Known about the structure:
Chain A is α/β, with parallel strands linked by helices. The first copy, chain A, is built from 18 helices and 30 strands.
Amino acid sequence: MPLVVFKPSQKTIDVLPGTELLEAARKGNAEIDSPCGGKGTCCKCIVRVIAGEVDSDSLGLLPKSAIDAGYLLACRTKVKDTPLTIEIPEREEITGGKFVEAADDAFLVHQEFLPKDIKLNPLTKKWHITVPEPQLEDGLSDIDRLTRTIQKEIGDQEIIFPLSIIRKIADTLRVENGKVTITAIHEKDRLTVVGLETGLHTATHHGVAIDIGTTTVAVQLIDLSTSRIISTLTDYNNQLTCGLDVISRINYARKPDRLEELRNHVLKTINNLIKQAVKNQSIKPEGISSAVISGNTTMIHLLLGLKPEYIRFEPYTPTLLAVPYFTAGHVGIEINPEARVQISPAVGSYVGGDITAGLLCTDIANDSEEVNLFLDIGTNGELVVGNRDFLLACACSAGPAFEGGGIKCGMRAAFGAIEGVEVNGETGKACYWTIGNVKPKGICGSGIISLLANLFLTSWIDAAGKLNRERNSLYIQFEGRHAKYIIAPAEESSTGEPITISEIDIENIIRAKAAIYSACSLMLKQVGLNFNDLANIYIAGGFGRFIDLEKAIVIGLLPDMPLEKFKYIGNASLMGTYLVLVSKEYRQRQHEIARRITYMELSTDPSYMEQYTGALFLPHTDVFRFPSLQAKLKK
Amino acid sequence: MPLVVFKPSQKTIDVLPGTELLEAARKGNAEIDSPCGGKGTCCKCIVRVIAGEVDSDSLGLLPKSAIDAGYLLACRTKVKDTPLTIEIPEREEITGGKFVEAADDAFLVHQEFLPKDIKLNPLTKKWHITVPEPQLEDGLSDIDRLTRTIQKEIGDQEIIFPLSIIRKIADTLRVENGKVTITAIHEKDRLTVVGLETGLHTATHHGVAIDIGTTTVAVQLIDLSTSRIISTLTDYNNQLTCGLDVISRINYARKPDRLEELRNHVLKTINNLIKQAVKNQSIKPEGISSAVISGNTTMIHLLLGLKPEYIRFEPYTPTLLAVPYFTAGHVGIEINPEARVQISPAVGSYVGGDITAGLLCTDIANDSEEVNLFLDIGTNGELVVGNRDFLLACACSAGPAFEGGGIKCGMRAAFGAIEGVEVNGETGKACYWTIGNVKPKGICGSGIISLLANLFLTSWIDAAGKLNRERNSLYIQFEGRHAKYIIAPAEESSTGEPITISEIDIENIIRAKAAIYSACSLMLKQVGLNFNDLANIYIAGGFGRFIDLEKAIVIGLLPDMPLEKFKYIGNASLMGTYLVLVSKEYRQRQHEIARRITYMELSTDPSYMEQYTGALFLPHTDVFRFPSLQAKLKK
Lengths: 635, 635
C-alpha cells in the first residue's frame, strides 16, 4: 500500500490505491477542512502534491490559477500506486465569506428540482453576419446596410441601435470586410443590438444571474452559448452596515443621500462579485451582455434608487412591482453598459421577485391538482401555496433570529458556528459540533433549532421556552428572574467567553417560528385547506439548507408531516434567476406566475394575531397539530 | 416742436411729436447704428432715455434686463410732446456676434413662406391628470396607478417610464393628492413619459429648435403651448477653431480624442445658447422637454460622436442618414435629460437634415406640377429640384469664398464688412458701403459679388476675371504677372491696410460660382429640364440674405431669370426645424421628403467637369444662357 505523508504535520498513513486523499487524511488524523463533507462543493479541502502522482478531477472547481499552482481538492483526488507527499495549506480564518467560490455549482445544476430539459433560449443572442460593402449607387448608410442584413435573417422588424453601438459601426464594418458578430435582445417586434464586434466571436457569450438577498448577494456567471454555470460567487450585501433587515434599511434610507448610499453599497457588492467572477475566467466584464436580477421588493427599490419608504406603511404601496427593462448602464451594473437588465417581477411589497424566481424551481404552478407549499425562511418569511388553479402568497416578519440576529451568541452559518447540539437528558451537558470542526464562536440558526428541540425533548425547557428551575444542572445559570443555558464553557470557545442561550433569546426564537407557522396555517385556512392537504413543502433559502427537519417539527417551526414531503431546494431565487436568463419559456412562466399570484396582506388580517398567539409555544398550544411529536414524547 | 438732445455728442434737433427716435437721430446727425434699416429686427439701435417721456414698444425685442435698465430700440420709440434727452451708448466693436438676440424673430414668424395655418401638435405634450390614491385592496403599485390613469385617457397603449422619472413617482403622487402634470412623447403605439411634476404646470411647456451650421449655430426657444417663438439666439460654432469647413473638420477628427473634442465644441456652443435663452426668460433648462436639431450630415456625425471620415472618401458612406430617437442626456444637450432629441433626416453625405428641414419652408414637395429649385449657398452648396412627382438633390463644394474665406481681404458679413460696391467706369474708383456704416475692415460675400459684377459691367475685368491691363486706373496695381484692385485705400480702412482684391481672389470666386451654377444646370439636365422650366428658385442660408440678385446673375452665380422668380427664405433650416418641433404634419412631411429625394453624386458624374469648366467665365462661356445680361451689356 502506498504511503502518504502529510505536511506540515508529518502525519503518515498507508492506504489502498484509489483511496480519496480526504479519506486518507481522516484516517491519518491529518486535519483537512471539508465543510461539505467531501461532496466537491465547498472547495475548502485544498491540498498540494509535493511528490508523487495522483488522479484528480478538480478542474472547473478550483480557479485556474490555483490549479496551475499545483493545488487540488482532496475530495476529488485519488491516491495512485506510488508514495505521496501532500501539503495541507495553513487555514486562514474565513470570517466574511468574501469571494468564496461558492459551494453550489454542482448543487445548482445537478439538483433534482432543476428542470431536466431546459430549451436554451437566452435573453441575448449572439450570431455572425456578413454585411455587404458600401456602394456608391445604393446610397445606403452603414446603419442601413447593417439593418438590412439583420432583417434578411430575422424578418422585417424594427432594429434598435443605442448610440454607443452606432459609434462603433463605421469602423467595425470595415475591418474584416463586413464580417461582424452581433449581440442582440429580441422582444416583441423589435430587436435591440447591444454588442457589435469585428469577426467571429460567437463562442464567448456570457450573462449573469444575480440574487440580491437582504444579507447575501449571489452572482452566477453563465456561458449563454451552452447555458453552463461557470461559477457562483457570494458575498455579504454591503448594505448590512446600514441595517440588518429590510425595515431598518427602509428607515435608514429616509435621510437625504442615504438612498444613494444604499444603492452604491449593493452595486459595489454586485460589481465586485462580477469582477471576481470574470477575472477567474479571463473574460472582460464588457463581454457580459445580459443580467437577470431577483430580490425582494425593498432590495430592488434600493438597487434602482427608488424611495422604499411607502413599502413600510399602510397601504404598503411600492413604486413598482413589475420592472421595465433597463440597460446595465442605467442600473449601474458594470458589464456591457448596453446589456439588458431584467428584474424578476414582484407580487407585493413583501413578496418580491426572489419568490417569483424561486417558484420556477418547484411544481407549484405547474399543470397539477396537487397543492404545494413554498416556504422561504429568512428574516422575512415568504410563503406561497397553490396548484394549477390558484396561487396565494403572503409574507411574515420572522425577525433575524434564524440568521443569528438578536440572539446574544447568535451568528450566521459560517466557520465556528455551532450547527448541531445534543443535550444530555441527565446532566444537561451539550454535545455540539461546529461548521469547519473548529472551536465554537457562536451558534447559527440550525444549531439554535437543534438546541431548542433537544432541550425541549429532554425537558430542560418547557412548552413556554422557560428553563427548568426544578432540576439541577451545571449548565443552567440564574440571574434574577431569568435563566440561561451554557452550550460551551469559556475554555472551549474560540472567543474566550462561554457560548450561551438565555430565556430572552429563546423567546425571540419562539416568536420567529410562530410567525412562520401561523402564516402558513392561516394562508391554508383561507383556501379551506390544512397541512395534510399538501403534497410537497418546498423549503428555499440559505437557512433551510442545514435545517434538521425533525427538530424543526419539534419546536413547531414546520408542521408535523412525513419528512419525505419536505423538499429543500436551496437558493431557489438564484436558480430561478438562472432559468429566466437562459430560457424564454421560463421568462414567460415567471410573468405568468407573477400575474396569477394573489397577494394576501397578513398584518391587516384580524385572525392572524390569534393564529400567531397559538403558535407561541413549543410546538403549539394545540398539541393535536403535532401527533407524531406527541407519540415521541410519550415514548 | 419738442427738442431732442443726443448724448454724448450733444447734437440736438427739433422734431414733430410722433417722430421715430431713429429718424430724429438721422436728421440731427447723431449716429445710431441700424443695420436692418429700422425694421426692428437687428436690435442694434439701442438708446436710453435720460430725461423726458417716449412711446416705445421694444418689449419682446430686447432682453428684459436691458429694458429694466431703461434701454429701448430707437426704431421702435416715438417722441412725445415733451423735450427729451437720449443717450446713445458707445458702440462696442462686435466681432463674434456672441449672444446677439438674433434679428430674425419677426422675420421668421411673419415671413411669407412660413405656413399660415400650422396645426399645433408639438413633439411633446403636457397635461394634467389626477391619479387615485393607493389602496390596500387593489395591490397596485404607484407606477400601475399612474399607468392606468394615463391609459384611461389615451387608450390601452404601452407607457414607458425612464428610471429617472420612476424615481420621482412615489413622492410626486403623494404631494397634492395625486394631481400631477405629465410631459410625454407619443409615437406609434407607445408613450414615453419624460416629465412628472406635482400640481398643474401645463402653462410652461418649452422646446428648442437647433440649427447647427458649419459656421453658425442658431437656437430657438419655443413656447410649445402656443407655438410662439420666444427668442432666437445665434453664435459661431465653437468647432471653427478646428477648421473652417466640413472637410477640414473631418480631417481634424482623424486623430485620437479629436472627435470628442469636436463634439464638445458644438455641445458647448449649443448649451451656452440654450442657457442664455432660458436665462432671459427665467425658465430652467430642465423645463425644456424636446429638441429638434438640423444640420448637415457631417455636423450631425460630429454632434453624435460618429466618425465622419468615411463621408469624405468614395463611396462617401456616412454611419447614418436617418437618426434614431435619443434622449438629450445621451446626446449631451443640457435640458431635461429625458427630453426627446429628434434629428432631421439626411438624404446623403452632402445633403443633410438642414435641407430636409429647409424644404419644409417651400412649395417644392407640395402637391403641384410646378418645378421649383431650392438652393442653399454656403461653403457647400446644396441643391434640390422637384415637384410633387420627383425630388432630386445634389451637393457641390463651392469653397468658403462667399463667406470671405480664401480671399485676402475677405470676411464674414459682420460689422465693417463692405457689402456693396459701385465702380466708376471712367476712373475705376470704388464707391462702397459697409455693414454698420463704419470704416471698412474687409469685404463679405455680397460685397464680393457686387464688386465683381460692377468691375465686369464697367469692363475693368474681362470674362476670365483678369483686370484690364490696357486702361489706366489708380486703383489697379500690378505685381509681376498678377494684378490687384484697390477697393479702399489704407487711409480709409479701419485696419490701416488697403482693402484689395487680387486676380487670384477673383479666380477663387469664379470657381465658387461655377460650382454652384454648373451643379444646378447639370441636375436640371438630368431630368430633361432647363432653368426656364422653373417656377421658383428658393434661396436659403445666411449668405443669400444680402445678395443682390441682379449682380449675382451678372457674374453667373444665378441663372438669368426674372427676378420675381427668386425667393429668399432665410435660415430655412431653422424655420423647418421649428415646424418639425411644433407640428406632427411637418414631422411626417419631413420624413416623406427624405424618403422621396433621390441623391445624385456629382463628383462621380462624368459630365460635371464639362459643365463646371463652361461656367468658369463671367457669366459663362455660353453667353446665350444670359440673354438679359447680353442686352444690358449691348446698351
